[in-house]
Design brief:
Keywords: Membrane, Transmembrane, Transmembrane helix. By secondary structure, the protein is of the alpha+beta class. The chain contains 17 helices and 16 strands.
Length: about 500
């Protein structure tokens, strides 16, 4: 074969190889386009930073993150909280499961079986979104002004990280503990409760705790932490070690101490005519909460079911502009009462029907309607129930709502309750409300979440002793506390106690 012939064959072979390479590239380029991958956007993932709600920096890639990646994020989050006890628990009425997923929610979007993506997709876990430090549940004793406090005297057995749920913080004496199990059945998350137990009321308080832990729902021992407090002028005769109280078995045949007339007819607090230091209890329970978010409430107010998981899904979803406003904020719950023959509604749809029939009314409507007159309350009641949890309206404690006493989900960064005020003197939350107003807090009213007072609509009852104490409290607030608050926090137009 001549040299010229060999060159012609080499040229032809080169052309054929080049055509094959070109076809190969075209075929694979088409498949890349079908995959929908945008290589220009993949090279530059935006970084979104904010300090809202105590969160850290959040990386968001809304163009690339797929539903499969969202589910993978969920699995990672689940593995991070494996230490949470998921044992089966129940009450006398049946067996209920306490699953760690109750604390976090259903999926990344707050919906089951949905492939669609939200407008904003955080690429980090709830743990990173909340950003907090865990706290100890070790029992300790300390003085708080005139009071001795036994912090974490009987701690819950479940191990919970600060980011994965919400704590219901509350207060009371042992006669209010019949509310604990119905509250837990709806809340199914940690409860921090401060018990006022002066003098001879200390022992029935211990017996009530033992009764609940040994004879009631397993949710009590798993999820409730009890703190006890009493004045230094009314110290009990004996204060046993925390370990002894936890280990002792209660004789369930004796029944609940709060139902025993032998105890309730001779309460030490009543015999000594002691005032109930409601705000000491509120602050002790709130300060001791092991989670970042908390709901500071009264033990007779039962929350709508699944509130903790739905709230945290909303925080993680972060698809509402109101969450990114610079003002400090709290998340307000609407409150209602139902008649004594009715059960508390399990969702907003059932609540709406009860409001229309008159078996439910707004909280304290017959006692102090202005105290719990929530902004846009009529619109809230008329709005239909929706999936998940959202901010319905952003309110302020001014104008017609200047005396509003909201109950809300917040953190320990929010103002405390003034411990000089008592339950008998009333207005015990008004000074905190003033501080929130002066600090220009936004009150983010949640759409599908609410609180319901234990069955029985309250009516006004004349109480001469309380009227005298109320007058004294009003003088204390106007002459001493408000001038102090103006020095410490300043003033803002429209804010009042």
């Amino acid at each position: 074969m001549s040299v010229m012939t060999r060159r012609n064959w080499a040229l032809r072979l080169s052309i054929i190889l080049n055509v094959c390479v070109l076809l190969y590239v075209c075929v694979h380029f088409g498949s890349w386009q079908e995959d929908g991958t945008n290589w220009d956007t993949a090279a530059a993932v935006p970084l979104v930073q904010d300090n809202i709600l105590g969160s850290e920096s959040i990386q968001i890639n809304s163009s690339l993150k797929t539903a499969q990646e969202a589910r993978a994020t969920k699995v990672t989050g689940s593995e991070e909280k494996k230490h949470v006890d998921t044992s089966t628990t129940g009450s006398a009425g049946g067996t209920k499961g306490v699953d760690a997923t109750k604390f976090v929610g259903k999926d990344e979007h707050g919906l089951e079986g949905q492939e669609s993506r939200p407008l904003v997709q955080p690429s980090i876990s709830l743990k990173d979104a909340v950003g907090c430090n865990d706290k100890s549940l070790e029992p300790r004793k300390a003085q708080r002004g005139d009071y001795w406090v036994l912090y974490n005297y009987v701690p819950m057995t479940m191990s919970v990280s600060c980011w994965e749920t919400i704590t219901y913080t509350t207060h009371g004496d042992y006669t209010f503990l019949d509310n604990l199990e119905p509250l837990l059945e709806r809340w199914k998350a940690p409860v921090s409760i401060a018990m006022h137990a002066p003098g001879n009321d200390f022992q029935p308080t211990l017996d009530s705790i033992k009764y609940l832990r040994n004879c009631g729902s397993p949710l009590v021992s798993q999820l409730v932490t009890f703190h006890l407090y009493f004045s230094s002028k009314h110290v009990p005769k004996v204060v046993p070690p925390s370990e002894k109280v936890i280990d002792e078995i209660y004789n369930c045949s004796l029944g609940a101490p709060w139902a025993n007339p032998q105890y309730t007819s001779k309460m030490y607090k009543n015999e000594k005519k002691l005032l109930y230091p409601v705000n000491v209890g509120r602050n002790v329970a709130r300060e001791s909460a092991v989670t970042h978010y908390l709901l500071a409430s009264d033990i007779e107010l039962y929350p709508s079911p699944e509130l903790p998981s739905k709230f945290l899904e909303m925080i993680r979803r972060r698809d509402q502009p109101t969450l990114f406003k610079p003002n400090p904020k709290v998340f307000v719950l609407s409150i209602f009462e139902v008649d004594e023959k009715s059960l508390p509604p399990i969702n907003k749809t059932a609540l709406s029907k009860m409001l229309k029939s008159g078996t439910a009314i707004p909280f304290h409507k017959k006692l102090c309607s202005s105290c719990h007159n929530v902004p846009k309350s009529k619109e809230w009641q008329e709005a239909p129930e929706t999936e998940g949890l959202h901010v319905f309206h952003v309110g302020k404690r001014t104008g017609p709502f200047v005396h509003w006493e909201p109950i809300f989900i917040g953190t320990n960064s929010d103002p405390w309750y003034d411990e000089r005020l008592s339950w008998e003197g009333k207005s015990d939350k008004m000074t905190q409300g003033y501080e929130l107003c002066v600090l220009d807090y936004d009150f983010l009213i949640l759409d599908n979440a609410f609180l319901v007072h234990r069955p029985g609509i309250k009516i006004f009852k004349k109480d001469q002793r309380r009227e005298i104490l109320t007058a004294k409290t009003n003088v204390l607030i106007s002459k001493i506390i408000v001038p102090e608050l103006k020095v410490m926090y300043g003033v803002r137009k429209g804010c009042a106690v």
